[in-house]
Design a protein that fits this description.
By secondary structure, the protein is α/β, with parallel strands linked by helices. Helix content is 36%, strand content 17%. The chain has one domain (4-149): Dehydroquinase, class II (Rossmann fold). Strand 3 (72-76), helix 4 (85-93) and strand 4 form a beta-alpha-beta unit. Helix 3 (55-64) packs parallel to helix 4 (85-93). Bound molecules: 1,3,4-trihydroxy-5-OXO-cyclohexanecarboxylic acid (DQA). 1,3,4-trihydroxy-5-OXO-cyclohexanecarboxylic acid binds next to loops.
C-alpha cells in the first residue's frame, strides 16, 4: 500500500467559510479537504482529513498516527498552536513527522500569535497561503517521506 497521510484541523476551523472571511477567506473546511484530496491523488498518496475543537482528540490522533499506519501528519492546530504543550509532546511522542500549516500568516497578526508552541517539534511550516498552505504542506511532507525511503546511493 502507498503512503497514508493524516490531515488534522483544530478548533474553530469547522467555522471556515463564515469565520472572519477577511482573514481566512470564504472556502469552507470541506472545500479545503477537497483540495487536499485532489492534491493527494496527484501525488499518489492517501489522505484522511479530520477536524476537532478538542485538544484531547488532536493529542490522541497525533500520538497514535504512526501506529495507525500514517506516514506523516499535516496539522493546522488553530489557536492550540500558541498554547499547547500537550500537542508539542504528542508530536514528539508519535513517530510520524508533522508539518505545521496555517491559512493566515500568524507572524503578521497579533503578537500572541507569533509564538508557536508546536514549531520546535515539527519538520516544517507553511503559513499565509490560504487553503494552498495545506497542499504545499502535503507536497513538502511527501517529498521528505519519499527521500527518506530511498535506499542510500553508492558512488
Ligand atoms: C490559524 C492561525 C491561528 O493563529 C488561529 O488561532 C487559527 C487559525 C490559521 O490557519 O491561520 O485558528 O491556525
Amino acid at each position: 500500500m502507498g503512503l497514508r497521510v493524516l490531515v488534522l484541523s483544530g478548533p474553530n476551523l469547522d467555522r471556515l467559510g463564515t469565520r472572519e472571511p477577511a482573514i481566512y477567506g470564504t472556502a469552507t473546511l470541506a472545500d479545503v479537504h477537497r483540495l487536499v484530496e485532489e492534491a493527494a491523488r496527484r501525488e499518489g498518496v492517501d489522505v484522511e482529513c479530520r477536524q476537532s475543537n478538542h485538544e484531547g482528540d488532536l493529542v490522541t490522533w497525533i500520538g497514535r498516527a504512526g501506529d495507525d499506519g500514517f506516514a506523516g501528519v499535516v496539522l493546522n492546530a488553530g489557536a492550540y498552536t500558541h498554547t499547547s504543550i500537550a500537542l508539542y509532546d504528542a508530536i514528539k511522542a508519535g513517530s510520524a513527522p508533522t508539518i505545521e500549516v496555517h491559512l493566515s500568516n500568524p507572524d503578521a497578526r497579533e503578537p500572541f500569535r507569533r509564538r508557536s508552541r508546536i514549531a520546535p517539534a515539527c519538520l516544517g511550516r507553511v503559513a499565509g497561503f490560504g487553503p494552498a498552505s495545506y497542499v504545499l504542506g502535503l507536497a513538502g511532507l511527501v517529498g521528505h517521506l519519499r527521500a527518506a525511503a530511498k535506499p542510500a546511493s553508492h558512488p
